[in-house]
Amino acid sequence: GGIIFYLDGTGGGLVAAPADIGTAEWGCNGTSINNNNGWNSNIGYGQANTNRILQNAAGSTNNCLTPGISADLCDNYTITDTYGTTYSDWFLPSKLEMIEIVNTIGPCAAPSSTNTCGISNINIGNLTPGQYWTSTEPIVGSAQTANMVLVMATCSGSGASSQGSKDNLFTVRPVRCFGTMCPLNTWNTSY
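Given the sequence above, the corresponding structure tokens read:
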């Protein structure tokens, strides 16, 4: 069901979808979702951030209701592996989760690192050059911008975080958790 890019050391971790799922707006342009400091850019918070975006969308009359925004694409993504197991618990990664993808399975993977099959990890995740949305709003009251991570064809310049207008079309790569990592991803989901 994807490519493992993070292990928490206690039997859990994070998995990136094997491919990008297109481009989309972050959504909610003109609306601050981060109105009570419930956001976190750290590893382990992508699910909580995504839940926050979707909860705001479900209970509001603002433009967060737009179908096909980045969080919605991730939430509705499914993939079935070669053993017939379907995974449907995907979310938009936090800023540091996306940077971890760039550094472990993207163009910044260490040249000497190999996966368990002995294959080089350099861009095994097939990240395309461009901007990738994250689920992190940069500051409280940020109605117009959200964090994105830059991916270049090589490591030089990749992994830099910046802010983009929420109505820009940037690339979307879903993430899911497994094992002991999953409880962390549900923190701060009731706002």
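The mean pLDDT is 81. Try to locate this feature in the token string yourself.
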